[in-house]
Write a structure and sequence with these properties.
Layout: E1 2-6, H1 17-30, E2 34-38, H2 48-65, E3 70-73, E4 86-90, H3 94-97, H4 104-118, E5 123-126, H5 129-138, E6 146-147, E7 168-172, H6 181-187, E8 195-199, H7 205-216, E9 222-224, H8 230-239, E10 242-245, H9 254-261, E11 266-269, H10 274-278, E12 284-285, H11 290-302, H12 304-321, H13 324-338
Parallel strand pairs: 1-2, 1-3, 3-4, 4-5, 5-6, 7-8, 7-10, 8-9, 10-11, 11-12
Helix pairs in contact: 1-13, 6-7, 6-11
Length: 340
C-alpha cells in the first residue's frame, strides 16, 4: 500500500494540525507504510484562497501523480472531486458549533461544503469519541467514524520539570474566541503573583484579550508570544507552574494531552473532548465561572509540590495513551480496510 498524505498545514511554522501531519507521517513510516507526503511549500496554507486552491485543485492532482493507492486528507478538509479513495481526519466540528463570528464564505467552505465532501470518504477518522459523536450528530447519524487518538511527541515525556520560583501559567493554542483566553485575564486581578504566557498564532481575538487586560490593569502580566520554536516551548513546559486550558470547544485537546505527558500540573474546562482526554486525572472547571478558576488556581499554587506529585503520577500512563506508534498502527488498519 502507498499512502499519499496531505501535509500542507505542516508547511512553515506548524502548529496543531500541522504537527499532527508531520508526526503522523514519521510514525507511519516507522510502521513500514510507504508515505508520499504532499505539500506545496511556496503556497501559504493560512490564506483562505490558497487553502481552497490546494484542497480542491493541487491536492487531488498531486495525489493522482504520486503513485499512491490511497489519499489521507489529514487537514480536516478533502477534495470534492477525488482522484483516489480518500480517508479523511475530521479533527473537530468547530465550524458547525463555535465559529459563527467568522466570515460567511469560510463557514460555507469549512462547514457545509466539507460536510458534503465527507460523505464521499472511504473512511472517516476522528481524534476523539467526542468528535465522533459530534460527527454523527451534525453530519451523518448513520456514520461509524473510526476514533484514533493522535500521539504526543515523545519529547514531552522527556521534559525535566524545573518550575520558576515566580509562577507563570502556560496557555498553548491559537488565540481565538473558542480558546477562551479572556477568562484567564479576568482571573489575574485576584491572583497578583501569577503571570500568563500564551503561545500560539494570534487572531483578531488577541486584540480583545489585550484590551481587557489593559482595562483590568494586568497587561504587564500577560504575554502573547505567538508561535515559538519547539525548544522554546519545551523550556516553557519545564518552567511553568501549571497549564491552563479554558477552551470552550476542542476536538482533541493537544494542550492538555501535552501537559499530562510533560508532567505539568493542569486545569482544564469541563467541555467537549477535554473531559475525555483528562479522564478524571485533571481537575475540570466551568469555562464561564471565573470564581471557580480563581479558587482552583489559588489552590494549585498554594500546593505546588502536591500538584507536581499528582502530575508525575499520570505522566507515564498519559505517554502510553497518547503514543504515536499505537496511533500509526490503528491508522494503518483503517487504510487497509478502506483500500483492501
Amino acid at each position: 500500500m502507498i499512502v499519499a498524505l496531505d501535509t500542507q498545514l505542516a508547511v512553515g511554522t506548524a502548529t496543531g494540525i500541522g504537527v499532527y501531519e508531520r508526526d503522523l507521517a514519521a510514525a507511519l513510516r516507522a510502521q513500514g507504510v510507504d508515505v508520499r507526503a504532499l505539500a506545496a511549500p511556496k503556497l501559504d496554507p493560512w490564506r483562505f484562497d490558497r487553502r481552497l486552491f490546494w484542497d480542491q485543485v493541487l491536492l487531488p492532482l498531486a495525489a493522482a501523480r504520486s503513485g499512491a493507492t490511497l489519499l489521507h486528507a489529514a487537514s480536516g478538509t478533502m477534495p470534492l472531486v477525488r482522484t483516489l479513495p480518500t480517508v479523511v481526519t475530521v479533527h473537530d466540528l468547530a465550524w458547525h458549533r463555535v465559529q459563527s463570528h467568522t466570515r460567511a464564505y469560510a463557514r460555507a467552505y469549512f462547514g457545509k461544503m466539507q460536510a458534503r465532501a465527507y460523505r464521499g470518504a472511504a473512511a472517516v477518522i476522528c481524534d476523539s469519541h467526542f468528535s465522533a459523536n459530534e460527527y454523527r450528530t451534525l453530519i451523518d447519524p448513520g456514520a461509524n467514524p473510526d476514533v484514533v487518538y493522535p500521539g504526543v511527541d515523545s519529547r514531552f515525556g522527556n521534559v525535566v520539570r524545573r518550575p520558576d520560583e515566580a509562577p507563570f501559567a502556560l496557555v498553548v493554542g491559537t488565540v481565538e474566541a473558542r480558546k477562551n483566553l479572556r477568562l484567564l485575564v479576568e482571573v489575574l486581578p485576584a491572583i497578583p503573583k501569577l503571570r500568563i504566557v500564551s503561545v500560539g498564532p494570534p487572531t483578531p481575538y488577541a486584540d480583545e484579550v489585550r484590551a481587557r487586560a489593559a482595562e483590568l490593569g494586568v497587561a504587564d502580566r500577560i504575554e502573547l508570544r505567538g508561535y515559538v520554536a519547539p525548544a522554546a516551548l519545551d523550556d516553557l513546559y519545564s518552567r511553568a507552574a501549571c497549564a491552563l486550558i479554558p477552551s470552550r470547544y476542542e476536538g482533541f485537546g493537544y494542550a492538555l494531552a501535552e501537559a499530562m505527558c510533560a508532567a505539568l500540573p493542569a486545569l482544564a474546562a469541563s467541555t467537549s473532548s477535554l473531559i475525555e482526554v483528562a479522564d478524571e486525572a485533571v481537575p475540570l472547571l466551568n469555562p464561564d465561572d471565573a470564581g471557580a478558576w480563581i479558587d482552583a488556581v489559588r489552590a494549585l499554587l498554594a500546593g505546588r509540590d502536591a500538584a507536581q506529585e499528582r502530575a508525575m503520577m499520570i505522566q507515564k500512563p498519559s505517554n502510553r495513551r497518547f503514543n504515536w506508534s499505537a496511533s500509526a498502527a490503528a491508522m494503518r488498519a483503517v487504510y487497509e480496510r478502506a483500500n483492501p
